[in-house]
Design a protein that fits this description.
Elements: E1 2-12, E2 18-29, E3 34-38, H1 45-52, E4 60-65, E5 68-69, H2 74-80, E6 81-84, H3 96-106, H4 111-124, H5 140-152, E7 158-162, H6 170-187, E8 190-195, H7 198-204, E9 207-212, E10 215-220, H8 222-229, E11 232-239, H9 243-254, E12 262-265, E13 273-280, H10 283-296, E14 300-307, H11 311-319
Parallel strand pairs: 3-8, 3-9, 6-7, 7-8
Antiparallel strand pairs: 1-2, 1-4, 4-5, 9-10, 11-13, 11-14, 12-13
The structure holds adenosine-5'-triphosphate.
Main location: membrane
Protein name: ABC transporter
GO molecular function: ATP binding; ATP hydrolysis activity
Length: about 350
Amino acid sequence: MISSRGLSKTFRGPGGGTVTAVADLTMDVEAGSLTAFLGPNGAGKSTSLRMLTTLLRPTAGTATVCGHDVTTEPGAVRSAIGYIGQKNGAGQYYRVRDELVSQGAFYGLGRAERRRRADELIDALDLGGVVDRPTMNLSGGQRRRVDIALGLVPAPRLLFLDEPSTGLDPQSRSQLWDHLLGLRERLGITLFLTTHYLEEADQFAERVMVVDGGRIIADDTAARLKSDLAGDRLTVTVVDPDHPTVVDALRAAAQGRDATVEHGSAPDTDVAAVRYSVTLDRGDRALPALLAHLAGRGQQVLAAEVRRPSLDDVFLGLTGRSLREEPTEPTGPDQPAPTTVPGVTP
Ligand SMILES: Nc1ncnc2c1ncn2[C@@H]1O[C@H](COP(=O)(O)OP(=O)(O)OP(=O)(O)O)[C@@H](O)[C@H]1O
């Protein structure tokens, strides 16, 4: 459905230098899949999407989307896809139904067909209560649903979404996801989206591509990324420990992983206790044997915990930085200006 080889984009930077926004993007995305492009601000997510949707011309490399080359057949690509950009696409003053009907006219649908399509999407995205309201009077979540409906008017086989849920409250985000997953199940469309939100990539995407500095630094299912690149975090708090005994026991429990045992004072305890942590596979399985081993050596364990890894642990392991920060609005002169291209909802 999407295939890219060495796709790259450089921009002229503020001081006359160059900014590499995307470097060597090589990937194949299957029809019917749900892929999340996950990365921090400035990682190159939007630029990648904008090249794949023909809004930006690549500096190097090639890509085909729905079987058409993004550089030589942009019209064919656009007629096969939907694109929901970061900014709201609906006109401020138009009523929701009118927006959807005129979008249908834009795509050349006949009068009856555009009304039928608008009704179908109003129903699918639960917009029945707001059809006669101008989009500027809608909540953030409702506006985002209108955007998605607009992107679906031409019945695309593939829908690109650039941060569909950024800025929405948790309840609207969860509703939006219900709609997206419902649409996917009903229509069988391929979804390719960018997100900052670790939880939604983890929960909903079948495939997660972690992007940083314009490059894909990891690409797999969330479960495999977490087990291969992060592992479980096992922590034990030991009263008055024999340090070498505890460290050896934790290293043995980690079995082969590059096990660095960290230790530090245990907060919230009245006794002289030390907290030890190690990263390992299947901490839940290792814990009983570890506790028995420590008890056999006279070590009194006050508390034990196994924490499953998150995608943030994956990102931290790969880059040394955390992704767990709220997205900020892009600012500054080097941010892309919103572009309107016929055939694609901006
Ligand atoms: N038109 C442009 N001119 C110059 N630099 C640009 C332009 N568009 C993007 N960039 C730069 O390219 C890099 C990647 O930007 P991009 O918007 O693709 O990142 P992103 O991962 O989508 O970030 P965000 O999550 O904030 O949207 C950034 O350093 C950005 O400043």
